[in-house]
Amino acid sequence: MIKRVAIIGGTGVYGINSNEIILNIKTIYGQVEVNIIKLNNDKEIVFLPRHGKGHSTPPHLINYRANMMALKELSVTHIYSTCAVGSLNENYDIGDIVIINDFLDFTKNRINTFFDGDDGVKHTDMSDPYCSYLRNKVMKFSSDYDINIKGNAVYACTEGPRFETSAEIKMYGFMGADVVGMTNVPEVVLAKELGMCYSAIGIITNWCTGFKKGEDIVLHEIASSIEKNKIKLEKMFIEILSGDLSQDECNCNNAILEL
Prior knowledge:
Protein name: Purine nucleoside phosphorylase
Family: Belongs to the PNP/MTAP phosphorylase family. MTAP subfamily.
Radius of gyration: 17 Å
Shape: globular
Strand content: 25-35%
Low-confidence stretches: none
Number of strands: 11
Largest sheet: 5 strands, mixed, barrel
Strand order of the largest sheet: 5-9-8-6-10
GO molecular function: S-methyl-5-thioadenosine phosphorylase activity
Function: Purine nucleoside phosphorylase involved in purine salvage.
Catalytic activity: a purine D-ribonucleoside + phosphate = a purine nucleobase + alpha-D-ribose 1-phosphate
CATH topology: Rossmann fold
CATH superfamily: Nucleoside phosphorylase domain
Mean pLDDT: 89
CATH class: Alpha Beta
Structural class: alpha/beta
């Protein structure tokens, strides 16, 4: 039986391998195009570009439920994702890599659950939103790929597509956020609802609005930060996902509480 794992590529990460097989998966929430990379064993990696090929879908219009359901229907068990983030932590500079370990949700208009009451009332335990097992794997393998993990980070997710105001950034900082992005919620929540192990790695692409005087958000700096890190991250993800993986060392597959 083929085992499947997945990589979700964020901004600037739209493909991994020229030998990918393209599949169109139809779910009840919509159609999703994914790429399949065959490994040298009984495993396949499903690559899903979060924004579509060529960055065609803005963050507030991504069909998150279709994306995550497509991975579930392909029997994916473990997911690594990349996300471009702004920093509001002095210790996390442009070009740094952080492991997301918690989030603050400031989205407004997104459908953020599969649980609509059709199958009873269900709640999701979010005490470990980003799989601790997969996060520990990154810490173990990162030095082999010359990836300097600067630390863990709390991710504030905003609606987008606009960037945040200086006042908003100050508020997020008071609440404990380290980085800000527009895509990780509800993605991380939906993965948990479907019992898939999910970990997100943040690439610092800019300082948040107003955080550093005279430091504006510059598009070429965003692209440069991503390009600098994406190949190393992809190679590390592939090695980790190619190995033996467990769902017995975390609570991701047992996080649903039914009333």
